[in-house]
UniProtKB/TrEMBL annotation:
PANTHER family according to UniProt: CLATHRIN HEAVY CHAIN, CLATHRIN HEAVY CHAIN RELATED
InterPro entries membership: ARM-type_fold, CHCR, Clathrin_H-chain/VPS_repeat, TPR-like_helical_dom_sf
Residue numbers spanned by region Disordered: 222-243, 270-302
Protein name: Clathrin heavy
Species of origin: Cystoisospora suis
Biased amino acid composition, Basic and acidic residues: 222-235
Positions annotated as CHCR repeat: 29-172
Pfam families per record: Clathrin
Length: 302
């Protein structure tokens, strides 16, 4: 069979061994393991109604995490009620229809099988179903763990009410407060404890809440005090800016050899264009009076 290239002959050989040599079928499958389509093998053997005959082969190839193989193994484990084997298979090989198996197990006669159903619901984030199933089976620790893993404050609050209103179980109420502490609303816990007269069971939770609130308020006060000090320090700081008059304005050239003196442009008020007489002084006014009191005659025209 190792030299056969036609894969159809493999499955004909499986049918032959199922009919005439069923006890040697696992040896045949082991020798052809690398050439077989494991899903097709499971389908072929399941159709013949002899799935249990190849159980050893299924366990040998389950490490491949094939859906058909995982479902076949789980089916055989459920039939044999092998709780530990089924738990190991569920946790290690997850490639199968988990919700279908959970629905199959939730009504199983054995309690441990129903607990596996709750585990599957929780793994698939069906926390409400997991909690309800655990409450029905009185597996309250499983219900508390499922509520904690859900991260849902509403489910935790409903479970707290269940412990006090339905069960009148303050110890379960306290256990839920401890396990689901980050998800418990203080007003809900305080109201339930006060209404059902079990404040002693709630007091450790309340002490821890007050401690956390006080720590946060102290941290905020310290942060605010530091911020106010920084603001006051900035307001009271002197203005240390002193303009540097020794530096010329930008763009003003320096005189070489003059100690870096700037060549400042004349101001507009001190500058007058030269007149017709070659002087920058203003021209004499017509008919102006001389210092001696004589009228100064205008120049004759050229």
């Amino acid at each position: 069979m190792q030299k056969v290239s036609n894969s159809d002959l493999f499955y004909r050989a499986i049918s032959f061994y199922l009919e005439y040599h069923p006890l040697q079928l696992c040896l045949l499958l082991k020798s052809l393991e690398k050439k077989l389509d494991h899903s097709r093998v499971v389908q072929h053997v399941r159709k013949a109604g002899h799935l249990a005959v190849v159980e050893k082969y299924l366990h040998d190839v389950q490490h491949l995490n094939v859906t058909a193989v995982n479902e076949a193994v789980n089916e055989l484990l459920v039939e044999s009620e092998d709780v530990e084997g089924l738990r190991e298979s569920i946790l290690e090989y997850d490639n199968f229809d988990q919700l279908a198996l959970a629905q199959l197990l939730e009504n199983h006669a054995r309690l441990e099988m129903r607990r596996l159903a709750a585990l599957l619901f929780k793994k698939n984030r069906k926390f409400k179903q997991a909690i309800e199933l655990s409450k029905r089976d009185r597996q309250y620790q499983d219900a508390i763990d499922a509520a904690r893993d859900s991260g849902n404050a509403q489910l935790v609050g409903d479970l707290l009410r269940f412990f006090l209103s339905d069960l009148d179980d303050p110890a379960g109420f306290a256990a839920c407060l401890y396990t689901c502490y980050p998800l418990v609303k203080p007003d809900v816990a305080l109201e339930l404890a006060w209404r059902h007269k079990c404040m002693d069971y709630c007091m450790p939770y309340l002490i821890q809440v007050v401690r956390e609130v006080t720590t946060r308020v102290d941290a905020l006060d310290k942060k605010e005090e530091t911020r106010e000090k920084e603001e006051e320090k900035q307001k009271s700081a002197p203005n240390d800016y002193v303009p540097d008059y020794s530096m010329p304005p930008t763009g003003v050239p320096l005189l070489p050899g003059m100690g870096g003196l700037a060549l400042m442009p004349p101001s507009a008020s001190s500058y007058a264009p030269p007149n017709a007489f070659g002087s920058s002084a203003p021209p004499p006014m017509m008919n102006s009076v001389s210092p001696g009191g004589l009228a100064q005659q205008p120049f004759p025209p050229f």
